[in-house]
Design a protein that fits this description.
Blueprint lengths: L4 H14 L4 E6 L4 E8 L3 E9 L1 H5 L6 H23 L8 E7 L3 H18 L3 E5 H12 L7 E6 L4 E8 L2 E7 L5 H11 L6 H9 L24 H17 L5 H26 L4 E5 L6 H13 L3 E3 L11 H13 L14 H4 L1
Parallel strand pairs: 1-4, 4-5, 6-9, 9-10
Antiparallel strand pairs: 1-2, 2-3, 6-7, 7-8
Helix pairs in contact: 3-4, 5-11, 6-7, 6-8, 6-9, 7-9, 9-10
Amino acid sequence: MPRTYYEKALLKAAEYRRKEAPLILGIESSCDETAASVVRAGRGVLSASVHTQIPIHRLYGGVVPEIASRSHTERIGGVVNDALEKAGVSLSDIDAIAVTYRPGLIGALLVGVSFAKGLCYAADKPLIGVDHITGHIAANYITYPDLTPPFMCIVASGGHSHIVRVDSYTDFTLIGRTRDDAAGEAFDKVARAMGLPYPGGPELEALAAGGDPEAYRLHTAFNEGEGFDFSFSGIKTAVVNILHNAEQKGEPVNRADLAASFQRAVTDALTIKSVRAAREAGLSTLALAGGVSANKCLRERLQRECDKYGIRFCRPDMKYCTDNAAMIACQGHYEIMAREPNELSLDPDAASFLQMM
Ligand code: KG4
Ligand code: ZN
């Protein structure tokens, strides 16, 4: 007879692997979205509940970590109940619980991880800690039921811009990364300099829709170079300088043109390097992941470039681009198929394993 929580968790994990349609509950609280989701057999999303804190943080022009943690604490119970209810299941039907434990705001992560641990301990469920970045990649599995590794992936979010070779569901090789700002961070900073509200990415995209992307040439030699690393802070600074110079001279700036030119420079860099990475690795599929994957200009540019070389291009459905828990549940499923569950001593970690590579 198993006695300890972990002995029971090991047995439940083995049961999970034997079941035809196991149910996993995903929990996400790494930044400014409190999310929960129930997923069947890894890819069937039964529910995906999200409480976004964007209207709260917008007042401050960016995410305020302490406010984020408090809001997660207030909301997490309700969001998890909502996900169970919408899926038409109760906690006793759930076979495992996956939670984002890195990277992110440490206080925000702590809320989700503590909540998941409490549920696991109280209800004898196996606990699976998921790296948020691998979750973003897994969002593609939900959209494309036939997608399997290996493939190349370009991850562009508020904190990361990485080209990752997905060798298996749980093995990843870092091919390239940003040397400074992440793509989403650059979008947010440029949007802020233009007086747009947080989060800047979608706002800047809307402004750019009416602009001429050829009006300003913001490309950098680094992003046009041989390697697979990116640099976005130079492009961001160039935009800020154009705005400041015009202001000092009292000259008007065509903000739509500037936004479109910035968007073009960032999407060109992400597209050209990631497609080249896929080709050089001999991979026939390139996937896009992370919050910036919601950008239509980037989705279209990548599709065109992939078509040119006969590469299959995958990108998540819009609702799974930005932070959500379905992607965490999906990656959690593949983790539990490949390894034993985590102990309850699992601690949140501000850094991703990709940052350590
Ligand atoms: O993945 P995500 O929701 O959170 C992190 O893990 O960071 O990504 C958020 C980032 C923000 O920087 C946001 O401005 C950017 O994704 N983003 C966009 C768009 N939608 C979200 N950037 C450009 N165009 C968009 N449509
Ligand atoms: Zn994210």
